[in-house]
Write a structure and sequence with these properties.
mainly alpha, 3 helices, ComZ, Competence protein ComG
Length: 61
């Protein structure tokens, strides 16, 4: 995985972290940063796969 791209993805995720935290709080789900790490890792994988899919589609057009 591209380290620079991952940093950009992390910046995007951090822009929306408060919205995610509010959603979890509303549902009564308590998570600390240690608990969030696996979710962030999965989010990074999803974002990388989406990037690759868009990249391949863009090359084919």
């Amino acid at each position: 995985m591209d380290q620079e791209r991952n940093m950009k993805f992390m910046q995007i995720a951090m822009k929306h972290i408060q919205e995610g935290r509010a959603f979890l709080d509303e549902k009564g789900i308590e998570l600390d940063m240690h608990d969030l790490q696996p979710a962030l890792d999965m989010l990074m994988q999803v974002m990388n796969e989406a990037y690759e899919m868009g990249y391949e589609e863009g090359k084919n057009e």
